[in-house]
Amino acid sequence: MSSPRILVVDDEPDLRELLEITLLKMGLDVDSAATVREARALLGQKPYALVLTDMRLPDGLGLELVREVAVHHKSTPIAVITAYGSAENAVVALKAGAFDYVSKPVVLDDLRAMVRAALKLSDPAAAPAASQAGDTSRLVGQSPAMQALRTQIARLARSQAPIAINGESGSGKELAARAIHAQSARAGKPFVAVNCGAIPEALMEAEFFGYRKGAFTGANDERDGFFQAANGGTLMLDEVADLPLAMQVKLLRAIQERRVRKIGATVEEPVDVRIISATHKDLARCVENGSFRQDLFYRLNVIELTLPPLRERLDDLPLLVDAILARLAGPGGARLGPGVLDALRGYAFPGNVRELENVLERALAFADDGVIEVGDLLLKGAKLGDAAVVPQPPQTPVSVAPGPTAALEQAAPPPPLAHDALPSNLPDYLSQVERDIILRALNQTQFNRTQAASLLGISVRQLRYQMQKLDIHAPEP
Fold first, then answer.
1. Which CATH code of 1.10.10.10, 3.40.50.720, 3.40.50.2300, 3.40.1280.10 fits the domain covering 5-126?
2. Cα-based torsion angle of the residue sequence 102, 108, 114, 117 in order, rounded to the nearest 10 degrees
3. CA 228, CA 232: separation in Å to the nearest integer?
4. What CA–CA distance (Å, rounded) separates 42 from 24?
5. Chain centroid to CA 80
6. pTM, two decimal places
7. In this structure, are residues 43 and 69 in contact, taking their beta carbons and an 8 Å threshold?
8. CATH classification of 129-306 is 3.40.190.10, yes or no?
9. Please, which residues have CB within 8 angstroms of residue 352's CB and are 6 or more apart in sequence?
10. Fold that domain 311-389 belongs to in CATH
11. Which DSSP state fits 261?
12. Is the fold of 5-126 the same as that of 404-469?
């Protein structure tokens, strides 16, 4: 079997020779061209596993080749060589369809890593098994919007360009990012998802870049950061709009230079990660109001992927419901009663698929014999035909036999504070208010914790924790 063939396009003889020798040592066949015209002639004669082109050539721009290869040789990845500090040129090339880029002076280890990734795309048999199936199993739906989304994901997986995923909360941004990773040449490497809004600002640099032993008080061991953990794979920055401006500067440098410096270290270390960012906010508007750096936006927003909200693909509801119930209750473990699908179609789902999962999980807890009825959904404001479906939980307080628990339930709520008055002990006052509200919810639901948690808008686990903290117990039978 012949070796994969690479086309190198560069007008500098010394650099062209260095690239040829490096690729030949990797066991690859190499053809060279010094101009756009020569490259076009070779592309018309032979198939290539990768095209590597300089951006500036005597008779044109490498960007012209990028566009032509993207259109006429779709199965051939093309990478560009950019001058040091020309990040804008790299971004333009990636937007035009380039697979990846390397900067001058060329770091041979980076070049080899990029070539190996490109060869996996050119030879599907060499790709990891995970990328063959693709992790799209949870992106359920056959609507036109979902079919177009899966097509986009398959196309984006062939590139190394940063991707910005836009979509409302709960629409599946992380699932889309995982699907891109699973179908890419990086599928065999780590996928690391980071919620940028959940990291305290004081810890951000240590979490992203790691630290050396003794770098600060408490740094008893050396630790890698998110970039090192995702090395060779994909780093997803979820809710990236929540990053503080100081961290945005450091992140921009790490993305541009592909190097990070641990806290306490004196030298930078190379990292090879593909960045996928996601947010439910409008990043362009964040740039306008000054809360997000324009240069970082430019680096992250090379390719945009927008996820449709659930209300715009209601045709997918039956498939989504079946998939969610199969995951929650097993195949055949739950089914829908009359009118349930109509009730779901009449609901706006501001929380999208995540909210649908929560609604079905809650309804399954209320359902008798695994049959979910309309009343089990507790969808406020949903419409079934012309009638509003607003199920109400039982409102009659439950009488409880006398005892210590009953005394707790019948305890009076804390007296309201006079205008401008302050409680003498805020924690105790708030605990009394919380205790009274939880007891009222439990009484309304006959101490059904699942229903009470739903009324209060918290999880059953949170309710159980609060009951334990406030010493609330179910009444003795």
1. 3.40.50.2300
2. 180
3. 9
4. 18
5. 27
6. 0.71
7. yes
8. no
9. 167, 168, 169, 170, 171, 172, 309, 310
10. Helicase, Ruva Protein; domain 3 (1.10.8)
11. -
12. no
CATH architecture designation of domain 404-469: Orthogonal Bundle (1.10)
CA distances from 343 to 317, 336, 337, 384 (A): 11, 11, 11, 5
Residue 27 CB burial class (10 angstroms; 0-12, 13-18, ≥19):
exposed
Which segments of 8-58 does DSSP mark as H helices, in order?
13-25, 36-45
pLDDT by position in tens, the chain (length 477): 578 999 999 999 999 999 999 999 999 999 999 999 999 999 999 999 999 999 999 999 999 999 999 889 988 999 999 875 566 788 888 888 898 888 888 889 889 988 998 888 766 555 444 444 445 557 899 999 999 999 999 889 988 899 999 999 899 999 999 999 999 989 999 999 999 988 999 899 999 999 999 888 888 899 999 999 999 999 999 999 999 999 999 999 999 888 999 999 999 999 999 999 999 888 999 999 999 999 999 999 989 999 999 999 999 999 999 999 988 888 777 889 899 999 999 998 989 999 999 999 988 888 888 889 888 888 865 543 333 343 444 333 333 333 434 334 445 566 666 656 777 777 777 888 888 889 888 888 888 888 888 888 887 777 887 888 888 887 765
